[in-house]
Each structure stands twice: as structure tokens, then as C-alpha cells.
Amino acid sequence: MPTLQEVVRFALAEVPGSLRAIAREAGVPHSTLVRIRQGDRDATREVAEALADALGRWAADCRSAELSLREFLTQEVDNE
Description:
Layout: H1 4-14, H2 19-26, H3 30-38, H4 45-78
């Protein structure tokens, strides 16, 4: 079973966008995420929860934007 450190490092490697932006969204210092990613610091449960919350907000925002675009494109095709 993976450790918290491994899961957080995986999440940080998969972040869509900059590490600085997700740190800001999570309310975590950028330097903390850099050090966790590099293996110089262990992730805490609090950091993992903040990161998960931030990624969830980004996912919801992206999904909302996707749906708006798809709705517009569908209407545009119907009007042609």
C-alpha cells in the first residue's frame, strides 16, 4: 500500500498547472510543496487534505467551464 508521502508526491506530479498556483489555492506555502515533491519533507495529513480540497475545487471549476463551452458549441451548431 502506498504511503501518504507517495500519494502526495504523485498528486503534485499530476497537478494541472503550476505548483505555485495549487499552493495558493490550498493555502499552503509553495516551499512546503516543493520540499515534499523533492522528498526533503514529509507530507502531513493537513497538507494532504488542503491539497485534495484545492484539486477538488479546480476539478469542479474545470467541469463547469467545460459544460459551458459544450453548451455554447451545441447551441452554435443548432443555429447554423
